[in-house]
Amino acid sequence: MAQETIELRGHLIDSLILPRVLDAVMAHRGCFEIQHIEVGARAEDPSFARILIAHQDPRRLEVILKAAMRQGAEPVERKPARLAPAPADGVFPDGFYATTNLDTSVYLGGRWVRVRGPEMDSGILVAPSRRRAQTVKMGDVRRGDLLVVGHEGVREVPVESRREPGDFEFMTSEVSTEKPKGALVGKVAALLRAERAAGRPVLWVCGPAVIHSGAGPLLERLIAGGYVQMLFAGNALAAHDVECALLGTSLGVSLREGAVTRAGHENHLRAINAIRRAGGICKAVRSGLLKTGVMRACVNHGVDFVLAGSIRDDGPLPEVVTDTVAAQKAMRRRARKVRLAIMVATLLHSVATGNMLPASTRVVSVDIQQAAVTKLLDRGTFQTLGIVTDVQPFFRELLLELGLGM
Fold it and tell me: Architecture of 1-76 per CATH?
C-alpha cells in the first residue's frame, strides 16, 4: 500500500483545513491515521497535525496529496521540485504543475523559494540558477524554459478564514439575496477607507449596466472622492458613458425620462464616431468635447483604466485594447498591485479579473443576478464576498456610508 506522511500547520479547525484534508482522503477511498495533533488553546494560536495517508493505488494517493497540499499540507520527507524544459514556444512540458491563486513555494536547492505573482491556471517558471520562481502563462513560455512538473517539492499556503468576533468575513461561499445589504455595504465602505488611508490603489471592474441604470454620476463621485484608482471595463461601458455625456441617452434610452428616444438606437454609434473624430477619450476631454461622464472623471482624476475589447464591439473607441492577449497582459500588470477589487454588474470581466488575482486580494462582487456572483466563486475566486442587489442602490448606499451622499 502506498503511503505518505504529511504535516499541517495553522488554524486547522476554524478554517476547516483539517476536515477538508480528511474529506479528500475519504472521498478517494483512502485511509488515514492522525499520528499527532496539537490544537491551539486560544483563537490566535496555531494548531499542528501529522497525518499518515495511505491508498492501495499510488495514483489515487497522488490525487489525495494534491488536494491536501492545496490546504497547506507539507510532506514530512521533503523532495526537491522536479523540473523539465518547455519543448517549444508556448508549450508547457507534459505533467506541468498547474497553479492556483494561493501563495506557493517550491523546494529548490535545499530551501523553499516563494513563487512570485501567484495566479491560477499558470505554470511555474524557474530561473536557471534555480533560486527564483514565478508564474508564467502558457503563451509566454519559451522553448527550453524550465518549469515545475508534478507535485513534489511544491507547497501552497491556504487563506485562513479565522476572524475575531465582529470582523467582516470574506471567506464564505454562501451568496443570498436575503443577506442584510446595509451591513455589507457599510463594511465595504470601511475597506475602501482603509485602502485609501494605506495609500493602496482600489480596482473597480464595471459593466455597462452601471451607465444604463443611471449610476454613472454616482461612480463619478466615488472617483472624485479618491476611492477609485483603477478601472477595468469593456468598450460598452465607455461607449454608453460617452453617449450619455453627449446625447443624454444610454442604449437610446433617455436617462432623464426613462423613455426610448427617436432613432435612439443610433446614438451610441454617433457618440463613438465623435470620439474617434476627436482622436480618443483623453483628447475629447482635453478639448472640452466631453464635459461629464465616468470616462471624463477617470481622465481628470488620473484613474488608470483598461478597456478590453470583444468581438461584438461597435467602433470600437480608440482606447479599447482589441488584442485579447494584450488586454490580459495590461490587466494582469495592474491587478497584481491591488489588495481590494470591487466588481459591479459584469460577469465576464469579473471572472477574467478574478483569474488574475491572488487569493490574498479581497474581492467584492455586486450583481442583481445571484448566479453571476456564484459563478465567480465557482471559477476559483473563492475569497469573493457576494452582494446580490441592483447597481444604483448599491452605489447610493455606498456614497452615504462614505459621507459622499446627497
Answer: 2-Layer Sandwich (3.30)
- Whether the CA torsion 111, 116, 119, 123 is positive or negative: it is negative
Q: What is the dihedral of CA 269, 274, 275, 276, to 10 degrees?
A: 80
Dump pLDDT digits (tens) for 232-282: 999 999 999 999 999 999 877 777 766 567 667 789 999 999 999 999 999
CATH topology of domain 181-401: Rossmann fold (3.40.50)
**What's the CA gap between 275 and 286, in Å, rounded?**
12
DSSP label at 133?
E
Residue 180 corresponds to which amino acid?
A: P
Question: Which three cell numbers, joined as nine digits, stand for 164?
Answer: 475575531
Grid coordinates of 16: 476547516
Q: Report the alpha-carbon distance of residue 361 to residue 161 in Å, rounded.
A: 13
165 forms beta bridges with none
- The CATH code that applies to domain 78-159 is 2.40.420.10
Identify residue 235 by its one-letter amino acid code.
N
The segment(s) of the chain belonging to CATH 3.40.50.10690 are: 181-401
CA–CA gap between residue 239 and residue 48 (Å, rounded) = 55
Strands 253-254 and 249-250: antiparallel
Query: Which triple of cell numbers denotes residue 335?
Result: 491587478
- For residue range 77-117, list pLDDT tens digits in order: 888 999 999 999 999 999 999 999 999 999 998 888 999 99
Cα–Cα nearest to 295, from 287, 305, 286: 305
What is the distance between the terminal CA atoms of the chain, rounded to a whole angstrom?
69
Determine which helix (DSSP H) or strand (DSSP E) holds 66, and give its type and residue range. helix 58-69
Half-sphere exposure of 212 (CA within 13 A, CB side): 15
CA distance 203 to 391: 17
pTM for the complete prediction?
Answer: 0.84
Strand, helix or coil at 130?
Answer: coil
The Cα 183–Cα 119 span in angstroms is: 31
Spatial distance between the Cα atoms of 72 and 74, rounded to a whole number of angstroms = 7
